[in-house]
Specification:
There is one protein chain. By secondary structure, the protein is α/β, with parallel strands linked by helices. It has two domains: 254 residues, Rossmann fold (3-Layer(aba) Sandwich), CATH 3.40.50.10540; 78 residues, formyl-coa transferase, domain 3 (2-Layer Sandwich). The protein contains 18 helices and eleven strands.
Length: 389
């Protein structure tokens, strides 16, 4: 097995839609798993036709939101309301290692594809269910999108300022965090299967994923009773040297939280006088004189642009970064060097995984994003291939 494809011996049946579920199977596919996407023959994954700003692609069932996590998969349509469709799905499941779905439990029960029945028939399977709220509780069958979970987990209420009110994050972070959570859980379940020989049910909650992203905030609230307040761009550490600072041009994000960081900042700014000023001698003093310190930092940062300050201060050991737009971030030398954006054979550019294993340079998808039912005619060949794996 190649270190660049550690999951190359796995077969994943992807019965998911929209973003979180398809992202999970996409990540597994980037690591070498064979992913077979199952869709309705009538419309397919609804995200094919919406999301993003490419109206022409969406009209063709190839929206940017779909293409983002569709490459490297086989695409087969099955009518699961028919005996033939169900029979073919079970043929695939008998040879598969993982079944991923993100529909409501009620829908899966109506299709006779719930975890109890599927694991009874295919006890080797890792059955991963991704839902808005997880199994159990009054919201078990409630549908949810990223924006709903941002609202329900508390992160939206903690984002913004007192003037702005709650603000949703600018990207669907709950969808992609849930996809990563599910991938992690599936790999753990596969490891367990290697020890026990038995498959298992993986229950992934978007709500709890959102809460997990707020872990330190939750612990602080439970310990103190202080609910998070909207602080805009100020850092959670509440350090006077942590936050967003305007420069001669642009904005610089500083993370000056430790005494060493403050020393690095003073030296990087060529402000050694800050180190001998009794008002800033230690963290308590800096917090007491936070307004004065912030003014000193801001006045000095006005001497150069954020683009000029970033390499100077990073070189001095200061945790900092200049505020970039998405185009600027993608064009940065760091992102380019890492190869985070991969180009498909049709010219489409898509993100890959945020980690590397065993020295891998990147994880390019094996094929372009498939059109609806692209591999229907190859069903027998696909079944034979996964049977002989």
């Amino acid at each position: 097995m190649s270190v660049n494809a550690p999951l190359s011996d796995l077969v994943v049946i992807d019965f998911t839609h929209v973003l979180a579920g398809p992202a999970c199977s996409y990540y597994l596919g980037l690591l070498g798993a064979r992913v077979i996407k199952i869709e309705s023959p009538h419309k397919g994954d609804a995200i094919r036709h919406r999301g993003g700003t490419d109206a022409q692609g969406a009209a063709k069932g190839m929206s940017t939101s779909y293409v983002t996590q569709a490459a490297g998969k086989n695409a087969i349509t099955l009518d699961l309301s028919t005996e033939d469709g169900i029979a073919k799905l079970h043929q695939l499941l008998a040879q598969a290692d993982v079944f991923v779905e993100n529909h409501t439990p009620k829908m899966m029960q109506d299709l006779a594809l719930d975890e109890a029945r599927l694991l009874a028939k295919h006890p080797h399977l890792i059955y991963c269910s991704m839902t808005g709220y997880g199994r159990g509780g009054p919201q078990e069958n409630s549908a949810a999108y990223d924006v709903n979970i941002q609202a329900s987990c508390g992160i939206m209420d903690a984002t913004g300022t007192s003037e702005s009110g709650p603000i949703r994050t600018g990207a669907p972070i709950m969808d992609y965090a849930t996809g990563l959570s599910a991938s992690f859980a599936i790999c753990a379940a596969l490891h367990q299967r290697g020890q026990t020989g038995q498959g298992s049910f993986v229950d992934v909650s978007m709500l709890e994923t959102g809460l997990a992203l707020m872990s330190s905030t939750i612990t602080d609230y439970l310990a103190t009773g202080n609910a998070p307040q909207r602080r805009g761009n100020l850092a959670n550490s509440r350090s006077p040297g942590a936050g967003s600072f305007p420069c001669k041009e642009g904005i610089l994000s500083l993370g000056v939280n430790e005494d060493a960081h403050f020393t690095y900042l003073a030296n990087g700014l060529n402000r050694a006088d800050l180190l001998t000023d009794p008002r800033f001698k230690d963290r308590p003093a800096r917090k007491e004189n936070a307004d004065v310190l912030v003014t000193e930092i801001e006045q000095t940062l006005q001497q150069k642009t954020a683009a000029e300050w970033e390499p100077i201060l990073q070189g001095a050991g200061v945790p900092c970064a200049r505020l970039r737009t998405l185009p600027e971030a993608l064009e940065s030398e760091q992102v380019q060097t890492r190869g985070f954006i991969q180009t498909l054979s049709d010219g489409t550019k898509v993100p890959t995984l945020p980690f590397r294993i065993g020295g891998a340079k990147a994880y390019p998808p094996s094929t372009d994003a498939p059109s609806l039912g692209a591999d229907n005619d190859a069903f027998d060949e696909i079944l034979a291939a996964i049977t002989d794996k």
